[in-house]
Amino acid sequence: MFDHSVISSLLTAFQPVNLVSCFIGAVVGTLVGVLPGLGPAAAMALVIPLTLKLGPTAGLIMLAGIYYGSMYGGSTTSILVNVPGEPASVVTTLDGYVMARKGRAGAALAIAAIGSFAAGTFSVIALQFFAPLLARSALAFGPAEYFVLTVLGIVLLSNLTGKSRVKSLILMMVGLVLSTIGMDPVGGVERFSFGIDAAQGGVSFIAITTGLFGVAEVLTIMAEKEEKVELLPVKFRELYPNREEIKRSVAPIVRGSVMGFFIGLLPGPAATMAAFASYGLERRISKFKHMFGKGAIEGVAGPESANNAAAGGAMIPLLSLGLPFTPATAVLLGGMLLHGVTPGPFLLKDRPDVFWGVIGSFYLGNLMLLILNLPLVGIFAKIVRVSPKYLMPTVLVLCVIGAYGDNSSMFDVWVMLASGVAGFLMRKYQYEPAPLVVGLVLGPVMERSLRQTLIISKGDISGLWGSGICVIMWVVVIFSAIYPIVGHFINRSKKVL
Amino acid sequence: MKRRVGRKIAFFLFFASLFFTQLCLQAHAAKDDWPTKQVELINPFGAGGAADIQARKLAEIISRDLGQPMVVRNVTGAGGAIAYNEVRRAKPDGYTLIWYSGAINTLSARKQITFDYTAFDHIAGIGYETIAIAVNKTAPWKDFKEFVAYIKQNPGKVTIGNSGMGSVTHMVPVAMAAKIKAQVTHVPFGTGLAVASLMGGKIDASSQHPAEILSQVKAGEVRVLAVSSAKRISIWPNVPTMKESGVDLVFDQWRGFAAPKGTPKNVIDKLSSIVKKAVESKEWIDFTSSVGTTAEYMDPSSFLKFVAEQDKLTKEIMTEAGLLK
Amino acid sequence: MGSSIVWMLFGLLFLVYSLRYPFDTIGSPGPAVFPFLISVFLIFFSGLEAIKSYTNRKKEAEKECVDEASYWFTRVCERAKGEAGPIKMTAVFVVYLLAMVWVGFFVSTFLFVFVSSRLMGSKDFLRPIALSLGIVIFCYILFEVWLKVSFPRGILF
Q: In sequence order, what DSSP letters do the residues of B7-70 get, joined into one string?
């Protein structure tokens, strides 16, 4: 079955109209990823009417191109100007931006592109061969399992930045608290809007991240202006990663791809969580631990691979069960229905042309994106050499557009400014803002799943550890929470001795 | 000397840019020849859902006759309250419309918005969308009657997922429980996740629009026990209505177009007739029946009357279920 | 230590505020439950941090043999250095956002880019203005014309 279908799939994708659609989708996707404020879901929705004229195969190839193209582009602004283009690339700012300031922007961008390519290709291969098998496993996760998973996420990521664990936990809690502003995800009750109409919809994730990272960075640069940051001139050859950087990236890319793919199978903010999880893992096991936060290439390679693999993983529940777990795959499902294609187990039987066309375009699109992105690295890398007096105003306008564009709301722009000032102060007082983002992302999932679990179990708390998966995860949670405390005491007693 | 020239150029550029922005903003024209620019359809639902794909498809058909594009914009949050607030405050010039649905009834009943359907000029009703009660393929109940009997014997034990408290998918099981005088446990989800939980056996049943479970039904993963509309729907001719199964309940999601109060009558009439043509086109009827909805045009006055009735009905159901405080 | 007290107050604000919403029952937890729990955790962790930084500081103070008050004074002075830039920038930003309501996105952005570029050290007029113009035209073509994202319009324009 494989040899024949693989050939036919690639042939479908190579038809001129599909080739062009794939290319357009990839270009638009990259653009969407680069520009903050226009997410893949919104962009795909905008393009749907256009794809209707193309027919199902070419139309869906274009939509899919935007979907994974945006994952490629997301890292660009994170690395260059500390403004995350997509939620999934927040974590890339931690080391990517530091690399850029050290003159290694080109290396970071190139590794991000290569990692994305490797992860994207890996996830298509896994999608092609194991989709039906893996789709079932996603169903084992219900509300109780998600709740434990979020707790696990908080515990495991509490030393994300490797500085103070307590400070990280404080910021995660702040993120969780902020995520409760707006409508309660279960009962539909307005909360914490403090009398502001616009706050009813909650605080925008994009507004907070562009503020905390982008605006705060501009303010920080202004504060240290006296010292005059002079960027070293970069030779063309040095734009690309050197041998050592490539060598150090291989293992993180492989780990990030595998982990991201499996996280992608689950609902919720999978791509973002995959990136964070990969960063946490790399920081823990790397030989260059001390370099994290100071421009470690592993901190770019791992997360950027993980979020692309997660984007691929999220296609599995969509294609084999017809279940969209993320906003972007929901639009893809909508696009399929508009084209008269029903995803699910019968897709392969009913419309093999569409199914294989889309799969084939994944391989092709990833290659196109790599070829498209590598030359761009050189151009983009020059951006960091633009004098701050021109670059920074541009960054600020970019932040405003990003925050506004998400919901067309001025309130979000004010939230962004407030987050910018807060982010500036946080850095001054040695708080790393990334854990706040973790809380913000996990908050709604955590609250919803906790309350759903209790509703389903009719108030019986044991519902929270009602399945084997839950119990295993709780054990990991308890172990990881106790381990650092015990370790602390062991260290202390050693010192005493 | 050189600096002087630079300054002159600078001032020239400054005024040139002011002029440029001014030009860009001059897009307003007289009302008689509506529409002279794109018409925006504000969709309170998220991109990709059943409501969204219908809005996009219909907007595309309407754009052909409108002479200007009709653009769908998703304004989500607060269960639709933000979108309704925005459209109510918009200029009543026919360029900002709302993708209107039963949410207006539930939002106003729950006081999530400070106004109700009377704050809008009704343009056209476009059809109904039934709510299906689906169960896992391994569920012990053969049909809706058995399901109801089981609920009656085990009050509060059956968990039914919906796509959010106060949504129409929540109203139906609430009203059903009230009709059979029994208790069920409602579990609010976002769309998609309820179906996954149903397939994973985490909940017993799910109340869902047909479009959300089409592929799962086709694959035999879930079974549909009953639909809430007055008649069976064309994609599932074998699925009985609730009324046929002995529960006297007819409650649908309805959809249509509305504009802020004070929109000129000629605009409403013109748009309504274009909508009528689109709704009755073969393309739309084929599409809607493929996703399990029913196309039916309503003119402005009968649409208003219909919405008023639905408003009363919604309030009754919610009061009965103790959802209004 | 000061910072952890700020976080504690922040948690307290949400804790108190969450009491305004119903808790309901454990079988159907109300909207107050989750924010309440999280605020408790936030207050707990910031308390922990406060204690930690207090003991650390005591150690430091002992080492450097300075008294509490002068320690604080030097720290505050150290930190306030170079603050003029960010404060000015924030003020310009606030004016920018307020101006958007009156003159719309494009005009206010034009002025903002120009002013902030001067603030960041541009010495001439030509280049900042060219930059402003470039950004405004770019935004108009890319977002307004092509992507159909509409920016806020002012009352005047």
A: HHHHHHHHHHHHHHHHHHH-----STT--SSPEEEEE-SPTTSHHHHHHHHHHHHHHHHHSS-E
Q: Do C107 and B18 touch (CB under 8 A)?
A: yes
Q: Write the CA distances from B151 to A449, B75, B318, integer angstroms.
A: 25, 38, 20
DSSP lists the bridge partners of residue B254 as B128
Least Cα distance to A443 among A141, A166, A203, A265 occurs for: A203
State whether A200 and B47 contact (CB < 8 Å).
no
Tell me the H-state helices in C30-67: 33-64
Per-residue model confidence as pLDDT tens digits over A293-347: 888 999 999 999 999 999 989 888 888 888 888 888 888 888 888 888 888 877 8
Exposure of C32 in the CB half-sphere (CA atoms within 13 A): 12
Q: How many CB atoms lie within 10 A of CB A83?
A: 26
Q: State the first-to-last Cα distance of chain B, in angstroms, to the nearest integer.
A: 76
Average pLDDT over chain A reads 85
C interface test, pick of A166, A169, A464 with most C CB neighbours within 10 Å: A166
Smallest CA–CA distance from C32 into chain A, residue: A191
Could you give all domains of chain B from N- to C-terminal order, each with its CATH number?
Answer: 39-129+252-320 (3.40.190.150), 132-227 (3.40.190.10)
Residue B159 sits at the chain A interface (C-beta within 8 Å): yes
pLDDT in tens, B12-27: 555 555 555 544 444 4
d(CA A166, CA A158): 8
Query: Which of C25, C52, C92, C149 is most worth mutating to test chain A (most A CB atoms within 10 A of its CB)?
Result: C149
Q: Provide the token pair at A378.
A: 């050189």
CA–CA separation, A25 and A10 (whole Å): 17
* Closest-approach residue (CA) in chain C for B14: C129
Contact A333 B48 (CB under 8 A): yes
Between residues 77 and 106 of chain C, which touch chain A (CB distance below 8 Å)? Answer: 79, 82-83, 85-86, 88-90, 93-94, 97, 100-101
Question: What is the Cα–Cα distance from C119 to A472, expressed in whole angstroms?
Answer: 56
Q: SS3 for B126?
A: strand
Interface check B1 vs C, CB under 8 A? no
Buried b (16+ CB within 10 A) or exposed e, A320-348: bbbbbbbbbbbbbbbbbbbbebbbbbebb
Q: Inter-axis angle of helices A352-383 and A16-34, to 10 degrees?
A: 40
Spans of chain A below 70 pLDDT? 1-10, 37, 225-238, 495-497
- ipTM, two decimals, is 0.87
Question: A197 and B85: CB-CB below 8 Å?
Answer: yes
Question: Closest chain B residue to C111 measured between Cα atoms?
Answer: B14
Chains contacting chain B through 3 or more C-beta pairs under 8 A = A, C
Query: Residue holding tokens 């202006």?
Result: A225
CB contact under 8 A, C49 and A177: no
User: Locate tokens 């270009």: which residue?
Assistant: A27
For B42, phi and psi rounded to 5 degrees? -85, 120
B247, B179 contact by CB (below 8 A):
yes
